[in-house]
From TrEMBL:
Residues 20-486 form the Aldehyde dehydrogenase domain. Its EC number is 1.2.1.3. It holds the Pfam family Aldedh. This is Aldehyde dehydrogenase AldA. The gene is aldA. It comes from Zhongshania aliphaticivorans.
Length: 506
């Protein structure tokens, strides 16, 4: 069959219209479970970016958007959340086919979390201090001052492939909630669900408020970051790309927020319930085949329970059903691409070369009917030292590195000995003591006796080289707004203004 003739083509969405790429070129999109070509996505360029940015700038002036009340915006966010729920299955299938995330997770967690975020912000903006009136001060005299939070302007939003819909929503929800206009660039590996969600959301927005330009990082992402009429960049992706973006954005002094890589450390205390930890630690790393920035990829285990915990985790890891992500019985789908798969294999090789021991997994898994899929066995590595390559660098795969400790201070030291600071945690029956440990861990999210405990009303983001800025919750609105002070003088008579006397001695 000539696949190219029947393949769906995903174009740009600019000014409320579907627009073909000016180059006429498209990028292949493959399904990581089958290796099949499933779609083509527009291979955008700087000309397309310019068109989208112009539409977004124009939309900032559109009075339907510029003057929209907070109440109307809140209603809009509710409508978007409801639309996500109403179209859940279609969005989820697109998400699973391109990213390899399991249908069970996308339907059971991602879709609900996305709708919940729009609902959370719909409520938050009603009490968010878009306008604050200040109390009088001695100086200046007879002045009323209000502090207003205005939209930043045109926001460039660049996302990664691991949770395309979630990452997109974390950014467009606060951007829209704060009254900005947007140009999105999704990962070229997983553009399909993003296209559909943006198409759905566009039905509620004035043309040009939410635009999409598809393509690669170099041809679309970079021109977006450098565009002089883009006011802010919100990026999710690798730490290396984040660095490049920060440098490129400096030329126009854009506001930048960065959600980058991680190497989450979970400390397991000797009093922890080993059965619960075995389940929880596996959940912490194996969800989305370990391709989660905040996964618990380092397990720092007390020597007294080390061997018993590893044995229990091994038994459970071998029970995880790896396979077709569209099958609701599947617990772990494929790795997103061949390139990512080989990257993980390189880390597994280096772990063994550096003296670590693969307890279970570590090999490609061949699934009947999906022989070309990039499936990897859930992998546990013991005998790790924190400075081994696989133990300190982000693998982004279903691989947990186990490091032994004897003293709590030593464990905290190991957890913090990382360039990253996105997630950390502690497993213990002493939850009061755990609170004190949580305050010492250098991470944006700390989880006690569980993992992935993200909620839409709590901020999420990184410390150190995991980036800066926070997503979700009302806090996310701060980085999509600019502060402005507006002061009105009530004393008009110059002779009564003490400050004028400082200059006007006549
Ligand atoms: P990546 O950095 O390769 O790409 C991310 C996005 O940036 C893609 O859309 C890509 O096309 C674009 N891009 C690439 N080069 C660019 C450039 N020079 N200018 C502008 N845009 C450019 O990351 P990835 O491989 O897609 O995603 C995996 C990474 O994302 C992991 O490191 C993971 O930890 C991180 N991540 C972080 C979070 C978080 O919230 N902290 C969430 C998910 C993923």
């Amino acid at each position: 069959m000539n696949n190219a003739q029947v393949l769906p083509h995903y174009h740009h969405i600019i000014n409320g219209e579907i627009v073909k790429p000016s180059s006429g070129n498209y990028i292949d999109v493959h399904c990581p479970a089958t290796g099949n070509l499933i779609a083509k996505t527009a291979d955008g360029n700087a000309t397309d970016v310019d068109l989208a940015v112009s539409a977004a700038r124009q939309a900032l002036k559109n009075t339907d958007w510029k003057n929209i009340s907070v109440t109307a915006r809140s209603k809009l966010l509710y409508q978007i959340g409801n639309t996500v729920l109403a179209n859940a299955q279609e969005l989820a299938i697109l998400e699973v086919q391109a990213s390899g995330g399991t249908i069970k997770r996308v339907m059971g967690l991602d879709i609900l979390a996305i709708a919940d975020l729009f609902f959370t912000l719909a409520e938050s903006i009603k009490s968010y201090p878009f306008i604050e009136n200040l109390s009088p001060k001695i100086l200046p005299e007879q002045v009323h001052t209000m502090v207003v939070k205005e939209p930043v302007g045109v926001c460039g939003i660049i996302t990664a492939w691991n949770f395309p819909l979630l990452l997109l929503s974390w950014k467009i929800a606060p951007a829209i909630a704060a009254g900005n206009t947007v140009v999105v660039k999704a990962s070229e590996l997983t553009p399909t669900s993003t296209f559909r969600l943006i198409e759905l959301v566009n039905q509620f927005l004035p043309a040009g408020v939410l635009n999409l330009v598809s393509g690669t990082g170099i041809n679309v992402g970079d021109p977006l970051v450098k565009h002089p009429k883009v006011n802010k960049i919100s990026f999710t992706g690798s730490t290396q790309t984040g660095r490049n973006i920060q440098i490129a954005a400096a030329a126009t002094l854009k506001r930048v927020t960065l959600e980058l890589g991680g190497k989450g450390a979970a400390i397991v205390m000797p009093d922890a319930n080993i059965d619960l930890v075995a389940h929880g630690a596996l959940f912490g790393i194996m969800m989305n085949s370990g391709q989660a920035c905040e996964s618990g990829s380092r397990l720092i285990v007390h020597a007294n329970i080390h061997d018993e915990l590893i044995a229990k985790m091994k038994t459970l890891a071998e029970k995880i059903v790896v396979g077709n992500p569209l099958d609701p019985a599947t617990g772990m789908g494929p790795i997103v691409s061949e390139q990512q798969f080989s990257r993980i294999e390189t880390y597994l090789k280096s772990a063994q070369e550096q003296g670590a021991h693969i307890v279970t997994g570590g090999k490609r898994k061949i699934i009947a009917g999906f022989e070309n899929g990039y499936f990897l066995e859930p992998t546990i590595i013991s005998n790790c030292k924190n400075d081994m390559e696989h133990a300190c660098e982000e693998i982004f795969g279903p691989v947990v590195s186990i490091i032994k400790f004897t003293e709590l201070d030593e464990a905290i030291g190991i957890a913090n000995d990382s360039i990253y600071g996105l997630s950390a945690g502690i497993w213990t029956e002493d939850v009061i003591g755990a609170q004190a440990v949580a305050r010492q861990l250098e991470a944006g999210s700390v989880w006690i006796n569980d993992w992935h405990m993200m909620r839409t009303d709590a901020p999420f983001g990184g410390m150190k080289q995991s980036g800066y800025g926070r997503e979700m919750s009302h806090n996310s609105l701060n980085s999509y707004t600019e502060l402005k002070s507006i002061s009105t003088a009530f004393e008009r008579d110059p002779s009564k203004k003490s400050t004028y006397h400082l200059v006007h001695t006549f």
